[in-house]
Specification:
Blueprint (H helix, E strand, L loop, with lengths): L20 H29 L6 H12 L2 H13 L14 H30 L19 H29 L2 H8 L1 H19 L4 H29 L15 H10 L4 E11 L2 E10 L6 H12 L5 E8 L13
Parallel strand pairs: 2-3
Antiparallel strand pairs: 1-2
Helix pairs in contact: 1-2, 1-3, 1-5, 2-4, 2-7, 2-8, 3-4, 4-6, 4-8, 5-6, 5-7, 7-8
Length: 333
């Protein structure tokens, strides 16, 4: 190799990679929608709190609605934090703020689901009777006070149904797993709300245990979703190979980069590694160059081409090595 590529000092700060204009517009729109989501979810919490004392299933939905305030707050906080420039203390920037927010939301969801399962099962076993009167005790269905509970629950179902699809579209366009996970729970929120309504109607019919069964079912749904998102968040922080959003399929970008480098005449062999930092990607290519063929210009040209392949590539480095056998046991990204 005629010219050795310059190496960035270890203490050098990573330069911010601004989003393309269309992604900046998408991000601004997503932030606006998250503010709207947060405001509407607060109204749901208030509406449910006003009638919370009569049904454990309703209390479960109220607690779940309280948790639902966390994901939009985490997203908005992460967008603000990750926009900060790198510092001497954090030379790689703050792009993992989104991953940390995703982990926080997943932990809260899992804990809340577990609590609802235990609370509902305990009340069911103990035979605790809810305080809501039946249709007969109220003097008939028209006089039954439980309709206020049903109305509040119906409103809690309508909010995620209206906003869910738009938020999913933003999440996919921005490759934001935290936003996608929260948006994808719209169906579960709808199901949980309907189950809670059935639990309340069961109380009106005098079937007291339906309310507690609804609480347990809602808790199981929440826990399963929380565990799934928790696994994804932990794997992201452990630098799992990047995968397509909402899927277990490996992101094809790593294979594209390797194929591009392998086609270069000056490359004898190459190994590519990618990892996620929030919605962005960073990576490295370990290149075993052909003797006396690779130049610094070759490395710079290849790097420029690779960075232009995908807007998510925040930082990608090409490193020359004498051999690749030390990395042979690791799969390429």
């Amino acid at each position: 190799m005629s010219d050795a590529p310059a190496t960035r000092p270890h203490s050098a700060r990573r330069q911010p990679n601004p989003l393309p204009e269309d992604k900046r517009v998408e991000l601004r729109s997503a932030c606006g929608l998250e503010w709207t989501t947060l405001a509407l979810r607060i109204t749901v919490v208030i509406a449910l709190y006003a009638v919370i004392g009569h049904s454990q299933a309703l209390a479960a939905i109220w607690l779940k609605s309280l948790w639902a305030l966390l994901p939009p707050i985490a997203f908005l906080a992460a967008v603000h934090i990750e926009s900060r420039p790198p510092t001497a203390r954090f030379p790689f920037g703050f792009y993992r703020a989104g991953s940390i927010g995703f982990l926080t939301a997943a932990l809260a969801l899992t804990a809340m689901g577990g609590y609802l399962v235990i609370a509902g099962a305990h009340s069911l076993i103990a035979g605790t009777k809810p305080g809501l009167m039946t249709f007969a005790a109220a003097g008939g269905p028209l006089q039954w006070p439980g309709w206020w509970l049903v109305a509040a629950l119906a409103y809690s179902v309508a909010v995620p149904f209206v906003l869910g699809r738009r938020r999913s579209a933003h999440a996919i366009a921005l490759h934001d797993k935290g936003l996608y996970a929260d948006a994808s729970m719209g169906h579960m929120n709808w199901v949980a709300g309907v189950i809670a309504i059935l639990g309340v109607l069961g109380l009106g019919l005098g079937i007291w245990w339906v309310d507690f069964m609804a609480t347990v079912i809602i808790g199981v749904h929440i826990t399963s979703q929380g565990l799934r998102h928790l696994r994804t968040a932990v794997c992201d922080l452990m630098d799992e190979i990047p995968r397509r959003i909402g899927s277990s399929e490996v992101d094809p970008l790593g294979a594209r980069i390797r194929a591009h480098l392998a086609d270069e005449a000056w490359v004898a062999d190459v190994h590519v590694r990618l990892r996620e930092e929030g919605r962005l990607l960073t990576g490295i290519a370990l290149i075993c160059p052909n003797e006396n063929q690779a130049t610094l210009a070759d490395f710079e040209s290849a790097r420029a081409t690779i960075v232009a392949m995908d807007w998510r590539l925040l930082d990608f480095q090409l490193v020359p090595v004498a051999r690749l056998d030390f990395a042979s046991s690791l799969p390429a990204a």
